[in-house]
Amino acid sequence: MLPQQISQIEFAEKYENFLKKFGNLSTSTVDMSKPQWRENPQFIINMIRNYQETPESDNRTTPSFPESLSGLMLRGFYRNFVDYEKYSLRTGFLYAYGYSLFRKYFLHLGNILRLKGYISQSDDIFYLTKKEIQEIGDLQHSTLEYTVLAEERKKEIEACSDIIVPEVIFGDTPPPPMRRGEVASRLRGLPSSRGYYEGAARVAATTADYYKILPGDVLIIPYSDASWTPLFAKAGAVISESGGLLSHCSIVAREYRIPAVVAVEGAMKIPDNARIMVDGYTGEILVSQQNLLLKDPSHEHSIT
φ, ψ for residue 220 (rounded to 5)? Predict the structure, then answer.
């Protein structure tokens, strides 16, 4: 079906309404240094261009329960869990919205410091500590010290961007850092959307990696919330390092009727282009020794 044609005026109105509701989202809901969607219109335009409608289904996510007392109880528990998940998503969204309100004030302060010569860019303020910002207020002249500090911290963050952070650290000494690419050949998690699928792995550390996802990819993510939903439209299957049967990832995967396995420890270590098979019934994930150096859609197939 071809997309419905609308006028530029109607599109602009819908676009502005979207920004009012979701413009505060970014690649991280707890890091105000990340640019918000409203600051990068091209990001939203690309999502619109790549949008795919949700497949129609008469029976989407509601499982069947036996006609017995135990089935009645299970239906009640299921409804309660679904309601809880909705409230959880709303709470998380409101938290992210409130957190995002501070960003413009920090950027304004950063712009003042930039004009006075303390930092090179307005967003360099996010690479300074509270104590350092207070020290700048006490200075009567500009200095390159804080500019150098910000640049060094940017480079340090970039150098550590591919390190896999362990979920739990025992003791005072952290384990040796592990980077993506050090993978196991077999992983297991919690199956949350049924089906089999084989295809190329595509790791998305944040929603900013949307450009990497090609139709039919096995989308591998650390977690998901409302801002991740557009990435699911192209995926042939989804693997998440966290989540449960009623997590956002599981629900959206069932809406799109694609296999999903959640709570997969070490999933983010799978390298891009690795050929993997996802079993949405048992939660088993097989990682092939052979990687896909070239994208060939004919090699990908669903075996549900």
Answer: -115, 120
Taking a C-beta distance cutoff of 8 angstroms, is the pair 162, 150 a contact? Answer: no
CATH number of the structural domain 180-302: 3.50.30.10
Angle of helix 103-115 relative to helix 130-138, nearest 10 degrees? 40
pLDDT of 208-231, one tens digit each?
Answer: 898 899 999 999 999 998 889 999
Q: Which pair of tokens denotes residue 65? A: 């329960």
Nearest alpha carbon to residue 110 among 147, 156, 153: 147
Bridging pattern class, strands 260-262 and 218-221: unpaired
Residue 122 to residues 29, 37, 221, 265, 282, Cα–Cα distance (Å): 20, 18, 31, 38, 50
Strands (E), 73-217: 163-164, 178-179, 186-188, 190-193, 196-203
Contact 220, 202 (CB under 8 A): yes
Terminal C-alpha separation, the chain: 25
pTM of the complete model: 0.58
Length of the chain: 304
Q: How far apart are CA 239 and CA 7, in angstroms?
A: 38
For tokens 């307005």, the residue is 122
Strand intervals (E) in the chain: 163-164, 178-179, 186-188, 190-193, 196-203, 218-221, 237-240, 260-262, 274-279, 284-291, 301-302
pLDDT in tens, 53-104: 666 655 455 667 777 877 778 888 888 887 888 888 888 888 888 888 889 8
